[in-house]
Amino acid sequence: ENVWAATEDGSYGFKGLATQLLRKALAKERFEMIYACGPEPMIREAYNLAEKYSLGFEASLERLMRCAIGICGSCVIGGYRVCRDGPVFTGEQLKEVKGEFGCWKRDFDGRKIPIGEWERL
To answer: Where exactly are the structural domains of the chain?
Structure first.
């Protein structure tokens, strides 16, 4: 029903990060569900807010997909293969992979790389 936009420079909609707008919205209104896509650290923050407010959550994750059939392991997060089991994951699924979600990605060889390092590659 309502769609709110956020841009960091304020050129359209709310000036700031999408998660800042989400925090403001959650403080003012009631919601049942949060849907998220974007950079994984941002999705992790939205997920944390969904947990705090006991809301449903779904997110579309983006991972490196070399083979796209689940063999190579480059898109693995926990026990899930983003190419085969996703890319949309529920809050319950993301809870299972909290130690990796928003913290690590995998390189072309399937090695875990901290997300901060990944962004610099």
So the answer is: 31-120
